[in-house]
Structure formats: structure tokens, C-alpha cells
């Protein structure tokens, strides 16, 4: 099945949910630097999936997916900091952790698929 729109990509859909969680959990956060950095990193994930898809080549798509994976690591790291300094509750942290693990698996799976597809052509 060929994907015609980035909106149909599972990793983009999961990244969108992560953005919603991050914005919801941090909407009352008065540490504006922390909030903004976490929000920017989360948005970067879904933006890079979309941009990479629309670049039109597997090589570029893989590059942007790798950047998205790095932004995901940043969100995960910031989540630990948020938990440690009481800007996130344990439940909020666990929600972000579970979504991050799922998203990481989706990104890795898509990268693996694209690399194998590229090597066959």
C-alpha cells in the first residue's frame, strides 16, 4: 500500500498525539523556558515526519525521520527533568513515556523499512 499523504503515516499520527499531551500537561507551567523547549521538541517530531515524507526520496525521508527521532529523545529527556522538578506528575510522565516508546518503535520501523526498500532498488 502506497501512502499518499503524511497524515496517513502512523508515526506522524502518534507524534500529533504526543504534541497534544505535551501542550495539555504544560499549559499551566510557569517555567516558560522548559515549557517552550518541550513544546518545540514535540512539534519538531511531527514536522520532520511530514517534511521528510514530502521531500520525495527515501534517502531524505530517512534523514528527516532520524531528526524526528532525535527530537523525540529530547522530549523524553525533558520529561524526566519535568518529573524530577515537579513540573509533571507521575501519571503525566508515564503517559509521555509510553507514547514516546511507541513512537520510537514506529520511527525505527519506518526507517528500517525505507532502508531495506532503498537497498532493493
Keywords:
de novo design (two linked rop proteins), mainly alpha
Main pleated sheet: none
Query: What's the CATH H-level homologous superfamily?
Result: 23S rRNA-intervening sequence
> What distance lies between the first and last C-alpha atoms, to the nearest angstrom?
17 Å
Helix coverage percent: over 70%
Question: Which word captures the global form?
Answer: elongated
What would the average pLDDT be, to the nearest integer? 95
Number of helices: 4
Low-confidence stretches: none
Architecture, CATH level 2?
Answer: Up-down Bundle
CATH topology: de novo design (two linked rop proteins)
Number of domains: 1
Order of secondary-structure elements: HHHH
> Rg, please?
15 Å
Regarding CATH, which class? Mainly Alpha
Structural write-up:
This protein has 121 residues and is mainly α. The chain has a single domain, classed as 23S rRNA-intervening sequence (de novo design (two linked rop proteins), Up-down Bundle). 81% of the residues lie in helices and 0% in strands. It has helices spanning 10-26, 32-54, 58-84, 90-120. The two termini are 17 Å apart.
Short description:
This protein has 121 residues and is mostly helical. It contains four helices and no strands.
Set down the secondary structure blueprint.
Layout lengths: L9 H17 L5 H23 L3 H27 L5 H31 L1
Helix pairs in contact: 1-2, 1-4, 2-3, 3-4
Amino acid at each position: 500500500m502506497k501512502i499518499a499523504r503524511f497524515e496517513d503515516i502512523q508515526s506522524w499520527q502518534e507524534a500529533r498525539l504526543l504534541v497534544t499531551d505535551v501542550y495539555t500537561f504544560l499549559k499551566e507551567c510557569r517555567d516558560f523556558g522548559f515549557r517552550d523547549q518541550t513544546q518545540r521538541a514535540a512539534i519538531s517530531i511531527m514536522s520532520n515526519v511530514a517534511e521528510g515524507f514530502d521531500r520525495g526520496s527515501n534517502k531524505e525521508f530517512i534523514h528527516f525521520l532520524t531528526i524526528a527521532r532525535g527530537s523525540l529523545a529530547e522530549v523524553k529527556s525533558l520529561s524526566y527533568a519535568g518529573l524530577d522538578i515537579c513540573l509533571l506528575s507521575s501519571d503525566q510522565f508515564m503517559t509521555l513515556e509510553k507514547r514516546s516508546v511507541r513512537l520510537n518503535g514506529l520511527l525505527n520501523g519506518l526507517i528500517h523499512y525505507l532502508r531495506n526498500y532503498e537497498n532493493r532498488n
